[in-house]
Amino acid sequence: MKLLFSHPAHFFSLGFGSGLSPFAPGTAGSLLAIPLFLALAYFLPLWPLLAVVGVSFAGGVWFCGVTGKALGVSDHGGIVWDEIVAMWLILAFTPPTWQWFGIAFLLFRLFDIWKPFPIRYFDQHVKGGFGVMLDDLLAAGYALVALKLLEHFYG
Question: How many domains does the chain have?
Answer without folding.
Answer: 1
